[in-house]
Structures are given as structure tokens and as C-alpha cells.
Amino acid sequence: MNDQTAQDPTQQTTSYVDDYVPPTDDSNLTEIPLEDATPTTVPVVASDDTDDEDDDNAMEDVLSDEDFEGDTDVKSDEDIEAQNIFVMLGVDEGDEALKEKFLDQLQEVIWDDFLKNDVELLLTQDELTAFNTHKEKVDSSQGEAQEKAKDEMVEYLEKLIPDLEDIMLEKALDLKADLFVERINGMKEYFTEKPEQLALVNEAEQLMYEDKWKSAAAILNGIKE
What we know:
This protein is mainly α and 225 residues long. Helix content is 54%, strand content 0%. The protein has helices at 58-64, 85-88, 96-117, 119-122, 125-139, 143-160, 164-190, 195-209, 213-222. Helix 5 packs antiparallel against helix 6 (143-160). The longest helix has 27 residues, at 164-190. It is elongated.
């Protein structure tokens, strides 16, 4: 699941984090600039064998590492799948309510990006026409009617795209990596005139290239001004 780490993370092209400033404390924990974004409730894309009563959100699990234990796709605790996004961004001690809102925003970014950039590539023209009908119904509805329309839209996509969940989880991992790269780039700029701290940031970057995400985050989180 972590094929994206085989390439240079800094060379990834994505609309996820344009002009993004990684959070440094609670005050900007939820401030993610979403290009052309509108407030939405992100549909839960779940596999058929998921217990509805648990209402697990697979994307949130990937971002917060809740599904790490027993995950056969994770080779070690250094893998990006095993990392908590708040530890990676150095705000693990943040307010829980704000952290939950932040996760919601990240999922919104992933879903909006999927609708904007992926759907057209995965559906035929006829399928896309039918999908747009579902989407228009979502956009024009409110309350329970909108939630029902969203569920129908996701159900339609799941029938046409069998690996939809895998696609969304992969996008979540990509976003995780992109946010960490943005943090490194921001710290490089911040410590430009402080060679000791800058050397540590560069060390963390090298560890990231080696897919040692846990060690890289630990170094960044240990840097003192």
C-alpha cells in the first residue's frame, strides 16, 4: 500500500496541500486551505464486511494509525501506514476536538480531490453522466435527503469501481506523505540561519527518503530552538 514512498516524496504532484502551512499548535490545527472547497460531510467508503455498528472510517484509520495493529500491509513501525498524522506534524498534544475536526478536513480534501481528478478517469461517459445526476442530487439536497443522496452516490461508485476503498486509502497515504514533506520544507526555511537545527531537519529528510517515517518525525519533534 505504500508504493508512493518508492519515489521522491518531494516530487509528488498533488492539489492536496497547495499553500498549506503545517500546524504548529492548536490555533491553526484546523486551518487547511482547500482549493474551491465547500463544507461537506465526507461519505464513508467501507468494505462489505465492515460492521456497520462500529462505523469505522477507513481513511481516518490510515491517517491516525488506528488500524496498524495486525495490518499485514505494514512491514515495520517505520512504515508510513503506522504513523499518526499528528505525531508526524508535531501536534500530538493538541485538543482532541480540534484534532477530530482536522481529520475531517483531511478526509474532505481527499474526497474532493477524488471527485475532481479521478472520477472522470475511472468511469465511461455514460457512467459519468449517471454519476453527475447523483452528484447534482447531493448538491441540491439538505439534511436527511442529502445524506441519503450521498449514500446512493457512493453505492453507485462502489458498483463501478470495485477497488474504490483501496484508491481512497492510497490517497490518504499520499496526503500523509505530502503533509510531512510540507512540514520539512517549512522547517528548512524557518531554520535557514540556524545550521545546527537545519542539519537535523536534513537528517530527518534523508530518513524520510529511506521510508523511516517514525524516526524522521522523532527527529523533527525533538528539535529545539
